[in-house]
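User: Please fill in residues for this 385-position structure.
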């Protein structure tokens, strides 16, 4: 293959990391299900939990190419990737600075597991760079961010975080799930470790559980040493499905992103909607930062229904858009954070985080935006009655 760095994004999605079918010359990667390989006198033998079966090894190259890093690694879930990465770079006595608003599962992992390992953590009070700096201590080893964040699509300045961390020899990690590698490549802004729930945009069809990490060869080698002990590798059957999904990553995410901007602009001018949260809108407080670091503004948005329109009633009237817990599939889905992801918090805690009763998180799919808007409209009309 020609120099993969010179390939266009769709060519990268389709061709980088294919497993060549040398035996039959088939058009797609064969699946190697073997858990046992000849000894062959190589330093590391092939074995599923060593993350190096033919399908795993090749798909890692596609992940790296998409994130423009030297290397990649794939896991059985986003949390397997996130936990393996964190516990590689944090040991007893270390300290990690974590952005206040992060994915709920990551938050739970930190607050319920880190005490057991003697790892200290501090949460910032916002996604602003000024709130990270004062938290740096002598033993701070990692800064962990997520941008855009869930559910209010806050934006963290990656370049500023990268520079601050380098000054103090701190490793930076980002959860890049919401943007996907199509809309944002954190390595270009000095972020070290890029994490993905591949269950979301990378899988894209709401039928795969997987995770991914992209980073330098050296960082991936370190993570690998820890990851083989935790054993969160992905089955080769699913590796193959993920490879298939990634072939259309750019086509899907581009279309979804285009739809999201169209719908965000429409909802912003709607008399029954109080507020729209989308980094692509000029009204978004960090729109300028988003413009600097994102190729597109993503396909996730949130909006607040006007008082008097019940979030659950509204969602029950939707016919095309599915109320659903997960996100990033090619079908559009909504969720009411108050009732689901943030249900365990008190109302005061929710309001502190800016999450109001009428907030709806909208994962925009590939359906025609006119159809999506028509569905939202009729549900608003019915929910108002
Ligand atoms: C879903 C999700 C995760 C966790 O991924 P799993 O594949 O469910 O383990 C992490 N971060 C973000 C932003 C997510 O949306």
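Assistant: Residues filled in for all 385 positions:
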């Amino acid at each position: 293959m020609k120099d993969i760095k010179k390939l266009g994004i769709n060519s990268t999605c389709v061709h980088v990391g294919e497993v060549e079918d040398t035996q039959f010359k088939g058009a797609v990667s064969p699946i190697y299900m073997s858990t046992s390989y000849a000894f062959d006198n190589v330093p590391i033998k092939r074995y599923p939990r060593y993350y190096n079966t033919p399908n795993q090894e090749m798909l890692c190259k596609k992940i790296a190419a998409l994130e423009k890093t030297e290397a990649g690694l794939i896991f059985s879930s986003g949390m397997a990737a996130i936990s393996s990465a964190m516990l590689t770079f944090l040991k007893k006595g270390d300290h990690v600075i974590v952005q206040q608003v992060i994915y709920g599962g990551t938050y739970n992992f930190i607050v319920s597991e880190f005490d057991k390992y003697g790892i200290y953590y501090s949460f910032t009070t916002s996604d602003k760079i000024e709130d990270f700096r004062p938290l740096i201590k002598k033993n701070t080893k990692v800064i962990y961010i997520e941008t855009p964040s869930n559910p209010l699509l806050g934006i963290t300045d990656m370049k500023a975080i990268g520079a601050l961390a380098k000054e103090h020899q701190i490793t930076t990690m980002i959860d890049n799930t919401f943007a996907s590698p199509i809309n944002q490549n954190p390595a270009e802004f000095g972020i070290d470790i890029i994490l993905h729930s591949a269950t979301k945009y990378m899988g894209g069809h709401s039928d795969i559980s997987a995770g991914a990490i992209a980073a330098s060869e050296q960082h991936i080698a370190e993570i690998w040493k820890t990851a083989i002990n935790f054993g969160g590798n992905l089955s080769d059957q699913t590796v193959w499905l993920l490879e298939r999904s990634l072939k259309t990553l750019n086509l899907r995410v581009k279309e979804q992103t285009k739809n999201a901007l169209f719908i965000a602009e429409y909802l912003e001018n709607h008399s029954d909607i109080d507020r729209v949260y989308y980094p692509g809108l000029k009204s978004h407080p960090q729109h300028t930062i988003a413009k600097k670091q994102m190729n597109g503004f993503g396909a996730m948005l949130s909006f607040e229904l006007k008082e008097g329109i019940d979030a659950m009633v509204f969602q029950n009237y939707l016919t095309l858009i599915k109320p659903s817990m997960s996100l990033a599939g090619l079908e559009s889905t909504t969720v009411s954070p108050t009732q689901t992801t943030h249900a365990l918090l008190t109302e005061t805690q929710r309001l502190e985080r800016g999450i109001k009763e009428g907030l709806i998180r909208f994962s925009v799919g590939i359906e025609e935006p006119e159809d999506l808007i028509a569905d939202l409209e009729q549900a608003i009309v019915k929910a108002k009655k």
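For context: The chain has two domains: 4-246, 250-384.
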